[in-house]
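Risk register update: the risk of archive-format incompatibility is retired. Evidence:
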Amino acid sequence: MSENHEQELFQITADQVTVEVKDSATGRVFRRTFPIDYLETSAVVRLRGEDLHGNPSEIVFFTSFGKQKLADLTGKGIDYDPCGTHTE
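Archived output:
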């Protein structure tokens, strides 16, 4: 923990998302809040909600770190031994 005793943050979660956009034609700014589950970690940003028919819908954005971890887990990452204990 830091000196100001704030808890270290490992993930961010919310049950709604506020989107702010600036219209390119008019320059006006609009804000909308949507009932979307939000999860952010060092590896991903995940948005989860429902489509117009009430079916579950989800989109996941991988960070650079997350893409590297996914490549490593599927055997497509760089072959390296970070701790020096996996060499033959």
